[in-house]
Amino acid sequence: MDILVLNCGSSSIKYQLFDMSREVATVKGLMEKIGEGQPVMNHEWSGGKEKRDIQAANHHEALQAIRAMLLDPTRGGVKDASEISAVGHRVVHGGEKFVESTLITEEVEQIIQDYFSLAPLHNPPNMMGIRAAKEYFPDVPHVAVFDTSFHQTMPPKAYIYAMRYDLYEKDRIRRYGFHGTSHRYVAQRAAAMLGTEHFTGITAHLGNGCSLAAIQDGKSVDTTMGLTPLEGVPMGTRSGDIDPAIIFHLAERRGMTLDQINRMLNRESGLKGVSGISNDLRDVEKAAEEGNQRAEIALEVYAYRVRKYIGSYLAILRNTQGIVFTGGVGENGV
After folding, report:
1. According to the model, what pLDDT value does residue 83 have?
2. What fold is seen in the domain 2-146?
3. Alpha carbon 29 to chain centroid, angstroms
4. 210 by DSSP, 3-state: which?
5. Catalytic: which of 19, 53, 147, 259?
6. Is domain 195-332 classified as CATH 3.30.420.40?
7. Residue 147 known to be catalytic
């Protein structure tokens, strides 16, 4: 059985083809700059890897190029599209509706759309990828794996905001958490490596997006991201936790609109905003080594907030077994 897994961003698609009989990835790749500039495909197969320019004005054209590469006699993973038994889609926000992987139906697609406003950077491109993939792989089941589902085990004391309760009852405003697929996987791997049935500890997914989770007996009991992926520790371009009154101050004193503030907090803050250099930790570290003071401050703020959350989670967990780091920064920069 071969399963294609897709992770669709606003201008990128990550893909992997898994041979489930051997539990290995036979093909993987990344398509970048979809619909902007010159799209590029980075493709790897058992015999090598290559980087090539392609034509992809949208996700449909990008999926067409990916499908063609998967069927390539030399660099592909299957001889015919019928060999692909299912397509899995990473979807960021599933709200309270989904606690596990779910077969994508028209009803599920509508729910994903309903959460566009809560994950504006993620759910819309996730949906574009689903629709494009259904066009090119029409006769197989498509399954959504939600970032939020793993965190549905959080107790009310962890996910309820201290606001008017009717905002939760009517609008479902609460902490949801994200990066659930990552937190679940590394918690399971940690348990296996430690020789225990379930892992109790802290998982830290640190990349351009960052979140930490408190895991008790294999279940998420708290996490740093909230209603949206903006809450929590500072990230590549996201601010993480701030005083909510800052929003009113910017609107009143600077005359900024809600759209401008939203863009600033999501795309112009974090490492990029403080350093003034980049959202890439490697670039900020290089600048700090060269004596750039703002880069040094950005790194200190980032590390300090991560440590604070680790400390707070150690206080609520029983019999902590360890701390797991994952993501590009967690794996390479700790």
Report:
1. 92
2. Nucleotidyltransferase; domain 5 (3.30.420)
3. 17
4. strand
5. 147
6. yes
7. yes
